[in-house]
Design goal:
single chain; 525 residues; alpha+beta; 4-stranded antiparallel beta sheet; TRIM45/56/19-like; 6-blade_b-propeller_TolB-like; repeat
Amino acid sequence: MATGSLSSVPKRLRMVEDFSCTRCLEQNLTESADIYCEKCEGFYCKKCVILHSQFHTKHMTCGREDIKKWPVSKAVEDFLRKCEVHEDETLTQFCHYHSQLCCSACVGTIHSQCSKVTQISELTNTQPSGLEGLSVELETVLGEIKTLQISQEASIQSLQRTYNEHSEVMIEQMCGNLNTYIDECDNNSVGTSGGNEQYLKEEMCRSVLSIVNEFDNITAKELNKMRDEVISIKGSVTSSMHKCTSLHNDLSHLHEIVQKIGDHKQLCLIASIKCKHIIQQALTLLGKSGKALIVQSNAKHNVRIPSDKDVCWITGICVLTDGQVLIVDSKNQKVKLLNQQYQVVSHWDVNARPVDICLITPSEVAAAVDTFNKHEVQFITVNQGKLVPGRKFQLQHECTGIAHHYGDLFVTSGKELYKYTLNGKLICRLYEQHGSTDLTVLKCAVSPTGDRLYIISHGQDKLLTLARDGTLLATYTDTALERPSDLHVTPAGQVLVCGNWSHTVLQVGWEGESKLATLATEEDG
């Protein structure tokens, strides 16, 4: 088989630069090839092909428009066959249990206990590569990742805007307080003289200093806390963007490889398996994992503490990145912090009814609080095993659920879904469903990419899937989902819904249209 050379071979997938001219390489020059001659088994640039045509008038050549007829370059073949774990080894086998390509070293170590490992050469006649379909799927996923990157960049800009707006409002408020007090002093100073005037000046200085100190002690702390939130969320977004960029590069170059490996059966099969593996990584990043979860075990933990006056009624759960868990105990009006062993190590008395909770940063949450005369969002920080309440903002409607995604807060009222910024500014009402039943919009959750919103309609036994702008995309009902009371979306986009009356936990596909698994029933507790 003829082998072409590549002008550059960097690490990982960034090796499909282009075919280089054979004649130019002989002269230590690097020039991209435009023509391939099957008879000569050589590649030629526009300049060298003229000389080739003069000497070999009857040789049939093919240009880049027929690049599929070109032989696979050695660099492409070496890359496809190279083991990612043992870089000096060549992929020769396939583990059916792990669905992984492996070399002889892998078989002797990682897959030594696997029951079925087959030579790749034996699979070429039984497993179709399906490269044409994969090529289309690669293009689709590439487009979705690009859209996600644009959305993430917009999230960072929106976060910074929110912080800037909040800072301006706080500073304007302080300046307003100062101006109001100075005006009052001017009015009171009319007709005063001597000692009274001196007293007013001293009083003015004390009051101005008090206003400034109040700004330093309260408002400045609030701004600093919000700034830290913005920095933390920006870090999460940036990390996700880096993953997107890396996967986008890998997919792009695999897509390029797929176009160039022709009908070589083994390479087609290897490329197909590698493509599927990276596509699955991309779908997980996009929150479109179709993998059903498997419950390995369950356990029961008591979260009651001596100061509780009623039975514990947990209406919201939030897990921190370090494994600590926060729960809202609605009936006892508490937010409780559990350690990794699910023991209560701290709590905060809300003195109102907390109904839900969501993660803001790795050490901060937002709790939704709702009573007959109080509807608010309360921020709480976990600091050295203690719960420290921070800022809060009031709502002009009831509050039944809360979710967060990259600086956007989504709050349900029982019949509507609202979108807020972190500083409490109402952006819009995204969805509403009024009817004869109550709690038609009970709680919500957001997909990892923020492009889908999920709502449970408690009164109508439904799971609703919305687009980012609130457009209804799908409605799911199930006899095993009676009076849904809560829901959760995993980082991979797996949607979990809890049925209160049916005593079930179901996993629904990310599209919100079908059930993937029943994870728990009444028999499980």
